[in-house]
Write a structure and sequence with these properties.
By secondary structure, the chain is α/β, with parallel strands linked by helices. It has a single domain, classed as 3-Layer(aba) Sandwich (Rossmann fold), CATH 3.40.50.720. The chain contains 7 helices and 7 strands. Strands 3-2-1-4-5-6-7 form a 7-stranded parallel sheet, sandwiched between helices. Helix 5 links the parallel strand 5 and strand 6. Helix 1 packs across helix 7, helix 3 packs parallel to helix 4 and helix 4 runs parallel beside helix 5. The longest helix has 23 residues. It holds the Pfam family adh_short_C2. It comes from Streptomyces griseoviridis. Keywords: Oxidoreductase. GO terms for molecular function: oxidoreductase activity.
């Protein structure tokens, strides 16, 4: 346990929490005492497995289906979580999609979906959460190392969407600071997930761009999110924390 009462009594919403980094975050926050709701778009079974693990760790968990590309679903998910738990203290904007390919080959539909999920949804989730977040509230978004260093061809759309979260974080931090709400960003590097496995076709290339020479784990990203969500980070806002093994060094 990392500190069972650090987030005791707090309620967190993790978007895209059924797999990968989102699932790791959803399982990490209960270790500090938080109850956790998560959104998912695809597999209800995967989402319920995460909820079962949250419950096994002694906290309350709940999964709600919501496509982050749908503004109504975003607002509905936040409202449902706040009603079920009677409060909301921590928003983790993790849900994201990617489209890799040459600039000229990316379709308008791909552009619209990536920007809807990766840029518009975090803004809308934050808007909906604001009526519930009080002093000590936290917004933590999951960005990407490619926002600072687009090292690979085909990453322009993904880099564009994740770079937008830097401005989102700074602007929100400035506006919400007087209300006691902090807003921060975690920027992962190559992380071993089903979307980017450590034994994938391009893993060696990505690994070579890191200073540590290895992939990171979802748990290492989750630790950074937990820090920013907790009391230890009460004087940290508008910040970007790279968890990238030195990818941007």
């Amino acid at each position: 346990m990392h500190g069972a009462t650090a987030l005791g009594g707090k309620v967190a919403l993790v978007t895209g929490g059924s797999r990968g980094i989102g699932a790791a975050v959803a399982l990490r926050l209960p270790e500090d005492g938080a109850d956790v709701a998560l959104t998912y778009r695809g597999s209800a079974e995967a989402a319920e497995e995460v909820v079962a693990e949250i419950t096994a760790r002694g906290r309350s968990g709940w999964a709600v289906r919501a496509d982050s590309a749908d503004p109504e679903a975003v607002a509905g998910a936040v409202a449902a979580v706040a009603e079920r738990f009677t409060r909301l203290d921590i928003l983790v904007n993790n849900a994201g999609v990617g489209a890799v390919g040459p600039v000229g080959a990316v379709t308008r539909e791909e552009i619209d979906r990536v920007l809807a999920v990766n840029v518009r949804a975090p803004y809308l989730y934050a808007q909906a959460a604001l009526r519930h977040l009080a002093g000590g509230g936290r917004i933590v978004s999951v960005g990407s190392c490619v926002a600072r260093r687009a090292a690979f061809p085909g990453s322009a759309l993904h880099a564009t969407s994740k770079a937008a979260l830097i401005g989102f974080t700074k602007g929100m931090a400035r506006e919400l600071g007087p209300h006691g709400v902090t807003v921060n960003l975690v920027a992962p590097g190559p992380i071993d997930t089903d979307m980017n496995p450590v034994d994938g076709d391009f893993a060696d290339l990505q690994r070579g761009f890191t200073a540590l020479g290895r992939y990171g784990t979802a748990a290492e990203v989750a630790d950074a999110v937990a820090y920013l969500a907790g009391e230890s980070a009460r004087y940290v806002t508008g910040a970007e924390l790279a968890v990238d093994g030195g990818f941007a060094a």
